[in-house]
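Appendix C reproduces, verbatim, an entry submitted by the partner laboratory led by Prof. M.T., so that reviewers can inspect both the input and the predicted structure.
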Amino acid sequence: MKWMVNEAVKRYLKYRMKRIERYMKDPEPFQDRWFRQLLETARTTEFGRAHDFGGIRNHEDFARKVPVHDYDRIKPYINRMMHGERDVLWPGEINWYSKSSGTTSDKSKYIPVPPTNLFGNHIAGSWDSMALLYANKPDMEVFRRRNLVLSGSFEKLKEYPRTRFGDVSAILTYHMPAIGRMFYTPDFKTVLQPSFEAKIDQVAEITSRQDDIVMFGGVPTWIIVLFRLILEKTGKQNMLEVWPHLQAYMHGGVGFEPYRQTFRELIPSDDFVYQEIYNASEGYFGAQCDLKINDMLLLADNGVFYEFIPMEEWDKEHPRTVLLTDVEIGKDYAVLISSNNGLWRYQPGDTVVFTRKNPYCFHISGRTKQFINAFGEEVMVGDTDKALAETCLKMNAVVVEYTAAPVYFAGEKGKGGHEWIVEFEKEPADMAQFNKLLDEALQRINSDYEAKRFKGMALECLLLKAVPKGTFMRWMRARGKFGNQNKVPRLANHRQFVEEVLQLAKEV
């Protein structure tokens, strides 16, 4: 029976692929349609009337009448919406909100998830990702065996119980289509419970007794924690001994390169595939379309109109933006979205670099607030992830987590530098050599850093400090960021995170 379901779904996914292939070849008509449809839908909302949506005829009008928004700018609207006000940013009353983990701030963000966005963006994006996965690997059995997603939880707003908020993964799990529920593990009561520690232990207990799991998803850090719990409970050497039918992992949220070697050891198979997706609290924006190429296809027909802010415009009050068809290969852009959840010219905070334009594919280079540029070096998360992965491969080391920050006036001559705090799963045999190779790798990857490092004239060699195992997890717990979709901030242009982690390491 289940193999028949899988075959039927494969036919449906082939049908979806035809639509995907159309916007892969020419995304402009799709983007233009969404631009007009979004404005028309929200024309009579409070925001639409205030910004004269009815009088907007083209992108130039839109950019002139609607300023770029960050969360602080739209927070007052969202607070009112969460307490039941209708027709504010988007038509109707919106009762679901995804809670952002806020990697660079202790403040949580609440993003509206109306039905148009839930089904027309997040769930549609999930189906498109699945279509791309099956197109690359036709022998997938997602709809024949079980699949696991380590999701978060949600809760009701005390002041207005009709409003519920939580991790976007929990909202998607709760609204999972019936066909998906047939092939999902564990039970919803277990996976949606609020206590992450209790949840992960129970998920490990349940799934360690199931030998038919074929695919899983979730933030890499917590998947690794889950897998180690399962191996501890079962006494097995790797996950293929527990789940022999494993085929794929859908991952996103953080750069995967630092974790790749760990996953290869946990799942020692050349046939196992990794598909990167870009599913944020604000929306589902991208998915890997060719598993042999390390980039993602921009989902151009998914309820979102995209603009992109060039790096030289990031700090401006009214930045110049470019449309999808005008982006340049190899340049850093901040993503700007107008979406079917009522976000208008909104910055999610992610930065991307386009790798090709036929189709329009990209990789996430970092966050607009996660970078180091204290000395003009413009180091992004994508640079540090890649440098660390290369160095680990050379030195046979495995990293659990890391964060880095500038050091001002380091050394006798008052030069600057970078300080890296790294937690190793497997330490290199020679830490000083690892430090040297990491610095050299970062120079190869980032020409601005290389220029500042030339003969040590402006920047000293980076300084790496290893901390005991478990330090980052204790730090995240202390910040109230433990579990689920929470992620360690990789880079900061300040020293707050580095100093907190170092202080915690001293207390061990």
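Residues 371-506 form a domain with the GMP Synthetase; Chain A, domain 3 fold (CATH 3.30.300). Additional entries are available on request from the coordinating office.
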